[in-house]
Amino acid sequence: MKPKKIGDTKFQLAINRAQDDDEATYKVVLSNEAGSCDSEASLTVRKPAPKVEELKLLKGLNDQTLTEKQPLILSVTVAGKPASVRWYKNGQELTPTDRRCFTGDEQTGRFACEIPSAGVDDAGVYKVILSNEKGDIESEATVKVNAAKPKEESPTFLSPLEDVEVPEGDNLTLKCRVTGLPAPEIKWEKDGVPLAASERITMRSLLDGTLTLRILDCVKADMGRYAVVATNEAGSQRSDCKVDVVEPKIDHSAPKFVIPLSSASAPEGKSVTFDVKVRGYPVPELKWTRDGVPIEFDARTKLEDMSDGRWKLTINDVNSADAGQISCVASNEVGKDECSAALRIQPGRDKRKPDDEPYAPRWNVPLWDRRIPEHQTMSIECHVDAKPRADIRWTRDGEPLEAGDRVELTYTPDGKCRLVITDFTSADA
Predict the structure, then answer these.
(1) Which chain regions cross the lipid bilayer (predicted)?
(2) Long-range contacts for 140-144 (Cβ within 8 Å, ≥24 apart)?
(3) What is the pLDDT of residues 252-261, one digit of tens each?
(4) Selecting from 2.60.40.10, 2.60.120.10, 2.40.160.10, 3.40.309.10, what CATH number does the domain 153-246 have?
(5) Over pLDDT 90: what percentage of the chain?
(6) Could you give the residue range(s) of every CATH 2.60.40.10 domain in the chain?
C-alpha cells in the first residue's frame, strides 16, 4: 500500500493484490498554511467467482429389490457441485413428503432419496438429474417392492365344539370358531373317519372363522365323537365333542292330513289309487267311506300301510258302482281330521288327457305346522306337481323370503321344495 502524487493536484493510494483485510474506509487529508480539507471512501474487496467444475458421476443409482416396510435408499456420488438436484419416479418429479426425504452433502458429493418404510406402491423406475452451468448428469434404477409375507399364527379355537344331545329325526348343528394366519384348512371327522358333504350333511366356513356342520334328520347311526381339524403352515389344532341321538319327545297332537286325498278318474276295468299321509299322536285310526257308507276291503279293494303315516287305498277293476265321494277320517284321543275326493268312472275306453297336456300346479306333499326348538336348524319340505314346471316362491307372513347366510332354498326337477333356516329363533316364527 503506497500513496503517490500523480499530478499537481492529484494524489493516489495504490493497493496491489487487494485482500480481505484491505477492506475498510479510507480517508485523505490535504492541508497548507491556509487550512485543510479531507475526503473518504469505503473499499469493498470482491472475491472472484469460483471456478465451476463439470459434474462427473462417481457412483450411480443401483437397481433394488426389497420387501414391504424395509427402508429404500437411492443415492449417487458426484464430483463437482450441482446447482440443482431433481428426483423422478416413472417420469413424474418427486417432492419431499412425510414418508420421503432428500439429502445432499456437497463436501462428499453424496445425494440421496430416502423412504424409511417402503410400500408396494413405491416400486417403479427412479431417476436423478444433477445440473450446474457446465451441464447435466443423470442416473436411473428400477426398484421392486414385494408384499410382506403375513405373520403366521397357528390355528386357535376361540369357541370350541360342545357336547350335544339331539332328538332322533331332528337336525344337528355343530358350531365353533377358529382363527389362524393364513386361514386354516378345515376337515371334519366322525369317530376318526373323515366326513364328506352329502344331501344330509353340509359344512360351512365363514370369513370370521365360524365353522358349522349340519346334519338333517338325525338317526341313531349319527351318534358318536365329532371333531374338526384346522391346519395351516404354522400348525394344527382340533376340537371335538360328543353327539348323542336320543329318543324324540312326542307331544300328543290331533290328526292332520299332510297329504290329503286327491280326486281321481279311471276308465271302467282299470285300477285307481288314493294316497294319504296323516300325522298325529297317538297314531290315528282311519275310517274310509264312499258317499258316507263304510268301504269294505276285499281282494278288489285293498288298504296298505306304507309306514310313517302313509296309507294307500287301491280299487282294482273299477266299475260305475265305485264312483262317488271317497272320504277318510283320522281320529285319536286328541281330535280328528277329514279329507275327501271325488272318484269318477269313465265308461268304455280310456279317455284321459295325453301325458304331455299342461296342467296347473298341485301339491303332492303340502307344508304342515312345525314346532322347532330355539337355536336349532329348521327344515321344511313340500312337493309340487305341475306342467310346465311351476315357479316357486317362499313367503313369511306375506313377505318374500330370500336365500341368505342362514336361509337355504332348494328346488329339484321332481318338484321337491326345501327351506332350511339355521339357528332358528322366535323372530323366525
Answers:
(1) none
(2) 140/61, 141/60, 141/61, 141/62, 141/63, 141/64, 141/74, 142/63, 142/64, 143/63, 143/64, 143/65, 143/66, 143/72, 143/74, 143/118, 144/64, 144/65, 144/66
(3) 889 999 889 9
(4) 2.60.40.10
(5) 52
(6) 56-146, 153-246, 253-352, 363-428
List 111's β-bridge partners, or say none: 76, 104
What is the CATH architecture of 363-428? Sandwich (2.60)
Q: Regarding the domain with residue range 253-352, which homologous superfamily does it belong to in the CATH classification? A: Immunoglobulins (2.60.40.10)
Please indicate, yes or no, whether the overall pTM of this predicted structure exceeds 0.70. no
Q: What is the pLDDT of residue 350?
A: 46
**Partner residues linked to 43 by β-bridges:** 24
Check pLDDT > 70 for residue 353: no
Asked if 20 contacts 46 with a C-beta cutoff of 8 angstroms, the reply is no
Determine the average pLDDT of the residues in 384-396. 84
CB 89 within 8 A of CB 124: yes
Residue 361: asked if its preceding bond is cis (omega within 30°), the reply is no
Contact in structure between 248 and 167 (CB atoms under 8 Å): yes
357-362, long-range: CB < 8 A, 24+ apart? 357/387, 358/387, 358/388, 359/386, 359/387, 360/386, 361/385, 361/386, 361/390, 362/262, 362/386
Cα(313)–Cα(322) distance, rounded to whole angstroms?
13
State which amino acid sits at residue 134. K
Q: Confirm if 173 and 198 have CB atoms less than 8 A apart.
A: no
H helices, E strands: number in the chain:
0, 37
What's the pLDDT tens digit per position in 42-57? Answer: 988 887 767 778 999 9
Distance CA 397, CA 259 (A): 23
Non-local (6+) Cβ contacts of 106 within 8 A are: 81
DSSP-derived letter for residue 277 is E
